[in-house]
Structure formats: structure tokens, C-alpha cells
Amino acid sequence: DTVMQRATEASNAAAAGIDLAAYIQSRTVDIPLRRRTSPEEVAEGIVWLATQTASYVTGNRLNISGGLELD
């Protein structure tokens, strides 16, 4: 969770007319891994892209979504 994510979720919950906790729960159950990601997990993907190991990766989107979006 980040400040930006919490603000976006609060806005979306208000627009949908539902409680914030209910909104977050409804979004979490849709994630195949059944948990939310952490900023550290996203950062690990970004750091990996900056390493020599990822030097042959070009023009792709790194999907860090717990399986919510399948490319």
C-alpha cells in the first residue's frame, strides 16, 4: 500500500458508494494470489530491469499484479 494507492481506493470507494474496507476486500479477492502487493515487490521488479540479467528484455511491460492481469 502507498499513499497514492490509498487515496485512489478511497476515491473509487466513495464514487461506488461503498465502504473503503469493503472496496479493498472486493479488489483483493479478484487477485489470484489473494493478497495485495507491497511497494518493495514492485521495486524488486524495477531493480531487476536495471540489472545486466535483464539486458535482453526490450519493449515489454513487466506485470507485477499477482496474476490479476494476464498478458
Order of helices and strands: HHH
End-to-end Cα distance, whole Å, is: 23 Å
Q: State the secondary-structure class.
A: mainly alpha
Number of strands: 0
- Main beta-sheet annotation: none
In terms of topology, how is this protein built?
Blueprint: H1 3-16, H2 20-28, H3 39-49
Helix pairs in contact: 1-2
Keywords:
48% helix; 71 residues; elongated; 0% strand; mainly alpha
Could you give a quick summary of the protein structure above?
It contains 3 helices and no strands. With 71 residues, the chain is mainly alpha-helical.
How does this model look, in words?
The chain is mainly α and 71 residues long. The chain has 3 helices and no strands. The longest helix is centred in the first third of the chain and has 14 residues, at 3-16. The model has no long low-confidence stretch (mean pLDDT 91). Helix content is 48%, strand content 0%. Helix 1 crosses helix 2 (20-28).
